[in-house]
Amino acid sequence: MLGYVTLGTNNIEKARAFYSALLGELGMSELFDNERLYFYGSDPAGPFVVVGGPYDAQAASVGNGVMVALKCEDDAKINAMHAKALELGAADEGAPGERVPGVFYGAYARDPDGNKLCFYKMGG
């Protein structure tokens, strides 16, 4: 079971504004922080999406092949999440649509720091 995933940022205030607005669409909010990492979720027990600066205090960078997938209840929510991400300054990485007919519907974006996000659902 996934506990949390951390996304690095070089601009914590911009990242917090982006993820507060975006994840709020999925019923998540900023639950707590340690002044470096900010934990978003819908339950204090997790799982969480965490944003913050790297522990080593070096610049955050994007991992090639790393992506965070956020489960949505239906195609309409995926479409709305993709549109919201773009509205908040994300870059389009793949418009909403079926990737595997009847099995996987998804959309892709990169947050303002370049971290790749997927909004998806499984099943027809």
UniProtKB/TrEMBL annotation:
Highest taxon in the source lineage: Bacteria
CDD domains, sorted: VOC_like
Membrane-spanning ranges: none
Pfam families tied to this protein: Glyoxalase
SUPFAM superfamilies: Glyoxalase/Bleomycin resistance protein/Dihydroxybiphenyl dioxygenase (SSF54593)
Family annotation (InterPro entries): Glyas_Bleomycin-R_OHBP_Dase, Glyas_Fos-R_dOase_dom, VOC_core
Record-annotated VOC domain positions: 1-122
Matching PANTHER family: BLL2941 PROTEIN, GLYOXALASE FAMILY PROTEIN (AFU_ORTHOLOGUE AFUA_5G14830)
Name listed for the protein in its UniProt record: VOC family protein
Organism: PS1 clade bacterium
